[in-house]
Design a protein that fits this description.
18 strands, 2 domains, Rossmann fold, nine-stranded mixed beta sheet, single chain, alpha/beta, 493 residues, elongated
Length: 493
């Protein structure tokens, strides 16, 4: 089966969030399961620089949205791990430094509608009768998030240009329904869709053109990144306005849990750590904790439980709860190390917290991949109190590193962390801590439970070792996706 994986980012070339990690890890897992998978990426400078053996394929692409009078080329190369990857070489759209979605002023690029319509149009062009690549034609197009949401719409609404004798199947994965790609109605004049598509049974979304809505409406199959999240987005609370459509299409909506690339995230062979360790020999974790305390200016004290945050610093991530509960945590003997960037008021709040509690709270504003690994290894707890979380990857990394996640029960957090209730601890099933309501009272009580268990190091070690044995690799999700692709092919036939 030939699969075109259409994504706007992929680690290590370009990354703003978990989508990049999924785009890097799932295609190789699918390939190991027997699929022929190729990526399609925008031709950002980092992509063109990072792909090896780049060469043009096929003819220039005519009528690309946002490229009047120009016909960009498609290039084919290889990711650092060898996965074949196409890059849409359109410098006028993608030849920009920095963030793929925002300019230096922190605002969205004003032509994002055209930029990502062009990506979707180029993906659809692989299915044209002549084919974009004369040597390769996909059986399934797997689109990711709003940036690729128009892929299914083009195949359904432009049969005059795409699809050939047999339309390939389409799958859309919603990584976070909060980001939807909404643009003014006059965008319809730029993106080569018929005007009739601007309707409630189409791409219209509350008076705008909705790219994610288009994908949800026209894709043969829909997925989210955890089973619980697939149910949550069908509710008023978390559906972000798409709950009605998703409820109608519930029989085409699946929740497939994200996996972890253990080739990157494994404390036994992680080159970014000061010392390796494993479930069978956890001696190195103490070395990692001491190094982390030193790096964040914290008191070197093995007896003090160290909680970490590796996250965007936003209200959505529930980190205002951490700000309010941190004083009690420190008073009880805990430490806190924070790495992230986000809303200015929250960044300032964590800086002030560190100033109030020297030796107990350390904060780094920014993003550092190596430091994120060392936080996972050196901390005792990882705090993930999200108000909603489609899947979450940091808690999966924490489990592998023997750092117990403390999470709010929502989305993929509910699916992956088993709360250390007395029964779960006695049964040997516990892997972390969880709480329900997004309140300071709830997270503070959960922190007190964690502290009580930390003071019983024999039990804590048993739970940490068990957490490290949990398997959240990509092999099982890859098999689920292959079944879904076959279903999408049947739907399209």
């Amino acid at each position: 089966m030939r699969i075109l994986f259409v994504t706007s980012e992929c680690y290590p070339l370009v990354k703003t969030g978990g989508l990049a990690d999924v785009s890097a890890a799932l295609p190789p897992a699918l390939a190991r399961a027997g699929a022929d998978v190729r990526l399609l990426l925008p031709g950002y400078p980092a992509v063109l620089k990072g792909l090896s053996d780049l060469a043009p394929v096929g003819d220039p692409i005519p009528d690309l949205p946002g490229m009047a009078g120009a016909a960009p080329r498609m290039l084919l190369g290889r990711m650092p791990d060898g996965t074949p990857a196409y890059a849409l070489d359109a410098p006028a759209l993608f030849g920009r430094p920095g963030n793929p979605y925002m300019g230096p002023d922190g605002r969205d690029w004003p032509d994002n509608a055209q930029r990502f319509a062009a990506l979707a149009w180029a993906a659809a062009a692989f299915t044209a009768p002549a084919g974009l690549d004369p040597w390769w034609r996909p059986d399934v197009l797997h689109a990711h998030d709003w940036q690729a949401g128009l892929v299914p719409a083009y195949l359904r609404l432009r049969p005059d240009r795409f699809g050939g004798e047999r339309r390939p199947g389409t799958v859309l994965t919603i990584h976070n329904i909060a980001y939807q790609g909404q643009f003014p109605p006059w965008t319809m004049g730029d993106i080569h869709l018929p005007s009739s598509a601007y309707a409630i049974d189409g791409v219209e979304y509350y008076g705008s053109v909705g790219y994610l809505k288009a994908g949800c409406y026209y894709a043969d199959r829909l997925t989210t990144v955890s089973p619980t999240y697939s149910q949550e987005i069908q509710t008023d609370e978390q559906g972000a306005g798409l709950e009605g459509l998703l409820s109608v299409r519930a029989d085409r909506l699946s929740g497939i849990l994200n996996g972890v690339d253990y080739g990157v995230w494994d404390p036994a062979r992680d080159p970014l750590l000061p010392a390796p360790y494993s479930a069978g020999d956890m001696g190195g974790k103490a070395v990692c904790k001491t190094a982390l305390q030193e790096a964040f200016g914290l008191e070197r004290a093995a007896a003090r439980p160290l909680a970490a945050v590796v996250s965007r610093l936003t209200w959505h991530k529930g980190l205002d709860l951490v700000l309010e509960a941190a004083g009690g945590w420190v008073a009880a003997g805990g430490q806190l190390a924070v790495l992230g960037t986000g809303e200015p008021w929250m960044e300032q709040g964590f800086r002030q917290l560190a100033a109030w509690h020297p030796g107990s709270v350390g904060v780094r504003i920014g993003y550092d991949e190596g430091l994120s690994h060392r936080l996972q290894a050196g901390a005792d707890l990882l705090l993930v109190p999200s108000r909603s979380e489609p899947c979450g990857l940091t808690q999966l990394y924490a489990l592998k590193y023997g750092t117990l996640p403390l999470v709010r029960r929502t989305g993929g957090l509910a699916d992956t962390v088993i709360d250390a209730t007395p029964a779960a601890v006695n049964d040997g099933a516990a892997t972390g801590f969880s709480f329900g309501a997004a309140t300071v009272r709830e997270i503070a009580f959960c922190l007190r439970r964690a502290l009580a268990l930390y003071r019983r190091p024999d039990r804590w070690q048993v739970i940490a070792r068990h957490a490290m044995t949990r398997d959240f690799g990509w092999e099982a999700p890859a098999r689920e996706y292959l079944e879904l692709y076959r279903a999408a092919q049947t739907d399209a036939a």
